[in-house]
Amino acid sequence: MTQKPFISFIVPVYNVEQYLCRCVDSVISQTCGDWELVLVDDGSRDSSPHICDVYAGKDSRIKVIHQENQGVAAARNSGLATVTGEWIWFVDSDDWIEPDSVNILKENCPHGTKNDLVMFGHVRHEGDMTYSNAGKEMKDVGKEEFLRCQISFFNVCMIFRSDILRNHGLMFTRGIRLAEDLELQYKYEMLCRCPVSIAEPLYHYLIREGSATHSVQYRRNAVDDLYLVLRNLHGFISEHDIEPSAWLDVRLEMLVKNWLYSASLVTGLDRAGFQKRVREIMDLYRGIGFPCFENCKLRLAYNSVCLYFITNKIYLKIKGIS
After folding, report:
1. Is a pLDDT exceeding 80 seen at residue 321?
2. What are phi and psi of 39, to 5 degrees?
3. Above 90 in pLDDT, residue 163?
4. Residues 177-186: what's their mean pLDDT?
5. Residue 63 sits in the same domain as residue 15
6. Which of 81, 228, 270, 317 has the greatest CB tally within 10 Å of its CB?
7. 221 within domain boundaries
8. Based on the domain organization, do 30 and 178 belong to the same domain?
9. pTM confidence score
10. Burial, 13: exposed, middle or buried (Cβ in 10 Å; 0-12, 13-18, 19+)?
């Protein structure tokens, strides 16, 4: 019986011929070869499918899945159904990793380790600028303390135990374009028992020119998708009898405030409809005992999102954020 690899990389691929080789080469050049790579071609129309096949033809550790375009969530799920590694690392196809990444992670996660989530730092590349964000090393601390101190918004800057994902049926929610990674991350964090973090910035994150993050459609999608994520998380918490905790309370508060902020940027927002959704979400979480939904700011949003938008805009202006 072939021994399963230490780590499996899952890389969704869609029209990234310009960046794909750098991503794949960064995996192939690892100083530790105990890995497998699954490239999921999500209906690309450029030369990306051919590039994937060429790499797979040269290295048996590389697998390729070709499918019709279904979105990044479906692509990652296809990868999850295929991989065999003990650990899983989701990597975006326009990004890359440090050459010693697998070796460093393997040293921190020897066979039989109780660790079940590993976070690490990243380097952000934006135009001609490079910003290094080293992680904070935390080991042998309780889960509650760890997750209160360590907040990451990037699934690409952490690795997950494949058995936890499979045993609990954790997958990315199809149809959600934004924050589907946060939904999976928060669910996983509720279930894991021994998270750790290391200081090394192993991941290189590229912000491409022409990013759509400030477009009108992006903001509308954010409002709709964050609503769905909040509903899905509530369902998961209720189904698994997850008790309220300080770290999860903080995460949920941040998610709701991000949702509210995204809505405040949408021109022509149906405020009456959004107000109804805000009250629905807050009532759901109040019903299972999360205290953040009783704080002054969120109570204001519950009573009047219009007043919340105004006061938050003034607050951000005073802080020099907006």
Report:
1. no
2. -100, 120
3. yes
4. 89
5. yes
6. 228
7. yes
8. yes
9. 0.93
10. buried
CA distances from 109 to 11, 54, 134, 160 (A): 22, 32, 19, 11
Same domain, 117 and 181: yes
**C-alpha neighbours within 13 Å on the C-beta side of residue 141:** 14
Position 84, amino acid: T
**Within a 10 A sphere around the Cβ of 210, how many other Cβ atoms?**
5
Where among 176, 207, 238 does a domain terminate?
Answer: 207
Q: What is the dihedral of CA 295, 300, 305, 311, to 10 degrees?
A: -100
Query: Which tokens hold the place of 65?
Result: 């899945």
Residue 211 has pLDDT above 60, yes or no: no
How many Å separate Cα 179 from the centre of its chain?
A: 7
Give the separation between CA 106 and CA 261, rounded to whole angstroms.
Answer: 40
* Number of folded domains that form the chain: 2
The reply to whether 227 and 92 lie within a common domain is: no
Q: Pick from 196, 220, 295: which is nearest to 252 by CA?
A: 295
Of the candidate ranges 68-72, 109-113, 172-176, the one whose mean pLDDT is the lowest: 109-113
Q: What is the pLDDT of residues 230-270, one digit of tens each?
A: 999 999 999 999 999 999 999 999 999 999 999 999 988 99
Please work out, in degrees rounded to the nearest 5, the angle formed at the alpha carbon of residue 213 by the alpha carbons of 208 and 217.
130
Instruction: Out of 207, 235, 264, pick the residue that ends a domain.
Output: 207
Quote the CA–CA distance of 229 and 48 in Å, as a whole number.
Answer: 31
